[in-house]
Amino acid sequence: MAENYIKMKNELHKKKLKRKKFVKILMAFIVLISVLITLCLKLSYFNVEKIEVVNNKNLTKEQIVKLSKISQGSNIFYVNLKESRTNLLNNSNIMDVNIKRNFPSKIIITVKERDAVFYIPKDSKFLIVGKDGVVLEEKGTIENTKLIKLDGIDVKTVVVGKKLNVQDKRAIELIGEITELYNLNISKYSITSVNMNNLLNINIFYNNMCVKIGTSDSLRKKLNKALNVIDTQGLIDKKGYIDVSYEGNPVFCIEK
């Protein structure tokens, strides 16, 4: 009995010692982690030295960094990535964004911008429109761009950052179709303007040559017909029209 009691007492003592040792190690670990965290938050080693912007086309690096509200010299751990992402997505040019820390002192901002495709004249300025019908911005000039002029839109209802306010949804669908064809175009001729005043009588222009489309049905087929006529007849620098709004051979007329 006495031997068992002593043995049990020794085991309990050993367990207490182990528990105390574990608690000491745990406390030391917590203190170490706390010290490391404090150092990370205080040391200039973890201050943001470089902000890299990837995949931007329309917006400059400086514009994107300013929109993100991330500043050089701030501690990399203090940077609120979620808040910065929200700030950037508030800009109508940006469709999506990913921000990540690259330790010890670099932030990488990867953006996906909406493609600017169209412009709408408004007084002495221009409204820039993306492929999904979103008005991206208002600019003072469109020099050195290859944007397509968009006619038939009421500019009084246009709001930057919002989709074009059109009564007929087919107008937005047409914008998307034309954008797709514009991006796929491998010919030497480019669309210069689109008139959507009447969606049953759509006109698409290659310089001064008007292509009468009619409705947007079989748009690609109709434009291919028109481009073939422009090319074979040498009409790109002429003024007139090509009618492809019906089945059969297209009719064209040149103004003298």
Describe the protein's architecture and organization:
The protein has 256 residues and is of the alpha/beta class. The protein is 34% helix and 26% strand. The protein contains 5 helices and 12 strands. The strands form 2 sheets. The chain has a 9-stranded mixed β-sheet, with helices on one face. Strands 1-3-2 form a 3-stranded mixed β-sheet, covered by helices on one side. The longest helix is centred in the N-terminal third of the chain and has 41 residues, at 2-42. The N and C termini lie far apart (125 Å). The mean pLDDT is 86.
Task: Give the topology, please.
Elements: H1 2-42, E1 50-54, H2 61-68, H3 81-89, E2 94-102, E3 106-113, E4 116-122, E5 125-130, E6 135-139, E7 148-151, H4 170-184, E8 193-195, E9 202-206, E10 209-214, H5 219-233, E11 240-243, E12 251-254
Parallel strand pairs: 1-3, 4-7, 7-8, 10-11
Antiparallel strand pairs: 2-3, 4-5, 5-6, 8-9, 9-10, 11-12
Compact overview of the structure:
With 256 residues, the chain is α/β, with parallel strands linked by helices.
Largest sheet: 9 strands, mixed
Overall helicity? 25-40%
Mean pLDDT, all residues: 86
N→C terminal distance: 125 Å
Tell me the overall shape: elongated
Q: Tell me the number of strands.
A: 12
The tally of domains stands at: 2
Strand order in the sheet with the most strands: 6-5-4-7-8-9-10-11-12
Q: How are helices and strands ordered from N to C? A: HEHHEEEEEEHEEEHEE
CATH class of the largest domain: Alpha Beta
The CATH topology of the largest domain is given as Rossmann fold
Low-confidence stretches: none
CATH architecture of the largest domain: 3-Layer(aba) Sandwich
Rounded Rg: 32 Å
Helical segment tally? Answer: 5
Which class do the helix and strand fractions yield?
Answer: alpha/beta
In what range is the share of β-strand residues? 25-35%
